[in-house]
Amino acid sequence: MESAAASAAAPVRPSGGRAGQSLLRGLPLLPSLLLLAVFLAGPILYCVYDAFTDAQLTGAAETHFVGLDNFTRAFGDPDFLNALWLTLVFVVGSAVVGQNTLGLSLAVMAEKATRPVRSLVNGVVIAAWVLPEVVAGYLMYAFFYQQGSLNDVLGMLGLPRQNWLYTLPILAVCLANVWRGTAFSMMVYSAALNEVPRELVEAAEMDGAGVWHRLWHVTLPVIRRSIMTNLMLITLQTLSVFGLIYAMTRGGPGNKSQTLPVFMYQQAFQNSLIGYGTAIALVLLVVGALFSVVYLKLLKVEED
Amino acid sequence: MATTDLRPAARAGRSGGAARPVPAVTTARRRVRPARVAVNLVLLVISLLFVLPLVWMVFASVSSTASFELNLPSPPTLDNFHAILNTETTFRPLLNGLLLCGGATLLCVVVSILAAYPLSRYRSRLRRPFLYTVLFSTGLPITAVMIPVYSMFVQVELIDSMAATTLFLAASALPIGIWLMKNFMDGVPIVLEEAARIDGANAMQSLARVVLPLMWPGVTVVTVFTFISMWGNFFVPFVLLLSPEKLPASVSVFTFLSAHDQTQYGQLAAFSLVYTLPVVMLYLLLTRKLGGGFALGGALKG
Amino acid sequence: MRKKLLAALAITVATTLSAAGCGGSGAAGGGNSIKVVYWQHLDQNDKKQQKFLTTMKTSFEKAHPGKKIEIVPVTASENDYYTKIQLMMRSPSTAPDLVYEDTALINSDIASGYLKPLDPYVADWADWGKFAKAAKSAVSSPADGKTYAVPDDTDTRGIWYNRKLLEKAGIKTPWQPRTWDDILDAALTVKKKLPGVTPMNLYTGQAGGEQSVMQGFEMLLYGTGGAGDSLYNAKTKKWITGSQGFKDALEFVHTVYGENLGLPKSAALGANAGTEVGTKLMPENKIAFNIDGSWMANNWLETGPHPWPEWSDTMASAAMPTQNGQAPGKVSMSGGWAWSIPAKAKNPDLAWQFMKTLKNRANSTAWNIIESTTAVRTDVAADPKYLEATPTNKFFTSLVKYTHFRPALPKYPQVSNAITKAMESVTTGQSSVDDAAKTYDQDLATAVGSDSTAKGN
Question: What are the protein's UniProt keywords (chain A) (predicted)?
Fold first, then answer.
C-alpha cells in the first residue's frame, strides 16, 4: 500500500523530451525570473562588485578597486570576528534552539491541551509574530530594561532583578527573537504533527513506548522534512535580524550584542564604508548557505 | 525517499482529520488527566510570558506620562490617540502602506504560484540550482543592496514612483515566496490533476481548478508572511520614495523615535497599536475562512 | 563593465515599466521652483521647523511672484537622514536645491563633491560679515578654503546643575568649578550627603554615539593641555595618538563610573541615556549636575516632551572648566546645522535667493528664539529680544568665545566611533585606561591611515 501511494503522490513527472515543450512548460516561471533578474540579480551583482572596492557614500569622490582588502580587513578585525561569533550564538541560541524547540514543544503540548488553552496560546504567540519589527524592538526594550516589566515581575516573585540589557545583552536579544519568531515554528510543527499517522503512534504506545521514546523514534523521523524546512527558513530569517537588535541595544553595550547585520549597518551607513559593509553582507550570505548545507546533510533530506 | 514517507501520512491525516480527535480526547480524559492538567498549566504560563510585553504597549498608549516603565495609567486618557490620529501621521501613511504592501503581496503571491507550478511538476536539471540560488539569496540583508537599487532607479527615472517601489518589494519577497509555494504545491498529489488533464484541461487550467483550491491554506500562509515582512520594512520605501506624502507607516513610525532621545512613548505605543491593526485583521480574515490557526499552519509542512 | 551591466538592466526596467504605464515622477523642474530638504526629528514633534519654513515659503512666494518653494521634510533617524540626502545629492534628477546638514558632516560631503561652493554668492551679500567667525570656519573646507554652507544655528555645552540639590549638599551656589577636581569633589560631596541622588551625568559609551563624544569626551579632551589640537592638528593635518590629554580624559571617565558618581553603568551605556536624564532624572530632582548642551531646556518647555514649569527656578548653569584651570579657564564644544546648495541642484540661484531671506537678521532672530538655539549672527547674539527669550540664552551665548568645533573631516565619524569604544571600555572597567588608549590609537590608524596620525604630548 505504501509504495503504491508513494508513486501516485510523486510530484515529479519526467519531461516530454522535446525542447519546445519544455520551454512552454517553463513559461509560468517567466514573470518571476524577470522580476528577480531586474530587481534583485542586478543590484546583488553590483553589491558583489562593491565589496571589492573602497566605495563610500560620503567622504570621497572616487571609488577604487581594492581587491580582497575588505575581506582581509574583516578577518583581521576583532570587531568583525566578534560579530561573526555573536551571529552564530544568536542563530543557534534563538532560532535553532529557542524558536525551534519551543515551537515544537508548544505544538506537541497544544495537541494534548484543552481547546480554550490551545486557542489562547496560539493567539498570544501569533500576536507577537505579527507585530512589525521596530515595534517589537521597542516592546522588548521596555520589557527587558532595568525598570522594565520583566524585572517588575521578578521583583513580585521575590527573585533578584537582573540587568538584562547590560550584563547579558545577547541573551536578552535571543529571548526577544524567540518571543517574536516562535509562532512560525509552532505553526510548521502543528501542521506536521497533524499529519503523523495515528496508527504509527498508537502502535508504539501499545508496545509500551514512553512519551519521549515515541517523540524521538516515531514522530520526529516522520516530520524530518518539516524540521529541515523550518530550520532553514528560521535560520535565514534570524541571520538578517537587524531592527529588533538595533532598537533594543544598538549592538551594545560595547559590542556585546553586535551581530553581523548590526555591524554591517554601522560600517556601511554610520561610517559610510559601503565597500566594507557590502563585503560583510556577502560573508553573511555565505554563513546562511553553510547552515543550509549542514541541515541538508544532517537530516539527509533530498530536495525532491 | 523522504517524500514517500510523508505522502501517505499526509493523506491519512487529512482524510481522518474530522473523526480522529474525538476518540483521542476521550481516551486521554479517562487515562491521563493529571498529565493534561500539567500541559494546560505549562501552556498558560507560557501564554502569560508571551503576553506580558504587550501589556506595556496597551498601558502606555492610554497613559499621559508614559515611559518605558510599566505603570498603570492614572487616569487613562485617549490623548495619545487624539494626537496621532490625523492624516499626516497615521491615515495617509497607513493607506500608502496598504497600497505598497498590499500590491506587492498580491503580485508576489500570483507570480510565485506561477513559478511554483513548473518547479513542482516538471523535472529539469536547472531546477535544483535555481531553487537553492533563490533560497540562499533570502539570506542577504536587503539594506545591503539598497544603494545600487537607488542608483538603478535614478537612472531609469523610477525613483519616487510607488508602482516601481511596489515591484521592488514584490521582487524582494519572491525568493521566499517561490520556495514556500513550491513546497506547498508538492503536497498536492499529482493524480488529482491527471483526471482534469484527461478531460482536456491544460496546465494552467488544472493549476487554477485543481491545485490552487487544494493548496489554498498554503497560499494564505505566503500572503500573511509576505505582508508582515513588508509592512515592517522601513528601509526600502524610505530610500526609494522621496515625497513625504507617498511614505508608508513603517517610515512615519520614526516620527516618534530617536533624535536627542526625546521619544514620545505614549504616542509611540498608540501608533504601534494602530499600526499593528491591519496585520492582525489580515491574519484574522484569512484564518477565519480557514477555521482557525491550525488550518493556517496545516499548509506549512515541508 | 559595470556601467554596461547597469545600462542593460536600466533599459529592461524602463521598458517593463513604461509598458505598464508607470514612469517615474521626475523632479520638479523649471527655473521657478526649488526643493528644500530638511530633517524632521522628534524634538520638533510640534513641527517647529516645518511651521517656520512654511511661513518663510509663503512670504517668499508672495514677494517673488511666480516662484515656488517646495518644503520636503525627511522623517528618520539622523543616520538614515544622511544616507537619504547623500543618495539624493548623487544625481541631478533627485538633488534638492537646498539641504540642511549638521556642520560635522559638511566636510565629508564636500569631499564627495556633493556641495556647491558659495563664495561667489556670499561675496555679494552684506549680511555675511555678521556671521561669527568660528561658525564660518565650521562651514568652509580646510582643503580649498571655500565656503560651502550658511550656518543656521549653533549650540554650546556646559554644566547644568540643580541649585536646590547642590545647596542641600552644602555646596555654595552659584557654582562654578575651576578644575576637573572641583567637579569630582562636588560629585563626591553629593554622593555622601544625598543618598538616592545621582551626583552627576557624563555621557559615555557607544549607544550614545556623538552625544557621548561631544558632551562627554571632547568637553574633557579640549580642556587638556592640547586644547584645540587635542584630537586633530589642523596645521600639520594629523590626527593625534598617544597623548597624555587623551589618557587624562579617559581617566576622568573611568573615575566617574568607577566611583559610582554617574548613572548606573547599565543606564549610562543604554540606548536611552539621554531620555532618562533629560526627561526623568533632571525634572525629578534626582541628578545634581549634568554636562550637557544648551538645548536642554527644550525638554521642559510647555511644548516639550516633559513640561517642567519650575525648571527655571531649579536649574542653573556653569561653564565647563579646563583640566587644571589653565587659560582660558573654560571650555565648550559647538555643533550646529547649516544650509547648503548641492552641486547638482537645478536651480541654485533661486535657492540662494531663498537662503538670503531665510538667514536675514529678522528671520534668524525669529528662528533662534523659536528653536532656543544659539545664534550664529553676531547682531542676533546681541539682540535683547533673543537674549531674553530663554533664561539660559545669555549664558550659553557667552560660551561661544571658549568654544571649539570638531574636526569636521570625512573621517571624523569613524574617529568618533573609536572614541565611544574607548569610553565604553573604561566605563565598564573592561580595560584599563592605558589599554583603551592603545586600542584607540590602533582604531584611529585603521580609520584614517597611519600616515595621517602623529604622536601627541
Answer: Cell membrane, Membrane, Transmembrane, Transmembrane helix, Transport
